[in-house]
Amino acid sequence: MTRLTEILNQMAGVLDSLETVMNAEQQQLCAGQINGSTLQRITEDKSSLLATLDYLDTLRQKEQKSHGTLPPEQETRWLAMGQQIKRLSNINQHSGWLLASQREHTEQALAILKPHQAPQFYGADGQAKSGVNHGNKKFPY
Question: What angle do CA 2, 72, 17 make, to 5 degrees?
Fold first, then answer.
């Protein structure tokens, strides 16, 4: 097996793993209740796989430069990988829309709740805000 074939095999495996992770991400984003820690783990896995894919593609490019074009038996595989990458791009775009929708929904909920929140008695520095009555009233008994 040539080094280029080995790299393409590794890339195909990473693409398959990436598709699994991206499908899990989409399922999580479509769920009625999003699990933040699960989504964080999925995002980390996705980032790691994309970094691995980028590294392998750099190796592929170097190997291909030194050996010329892809062998005919690898050309079909390379085209299939290109189709898979297009599918993954579409999944990723859809996930982006889902995230934007979730963010908009959250912002709307916060806008509704904001007028009903308790007043702030302390500033960001931990000091009492001026003009706020802190309960120092004297009550006649």
Answer: 65
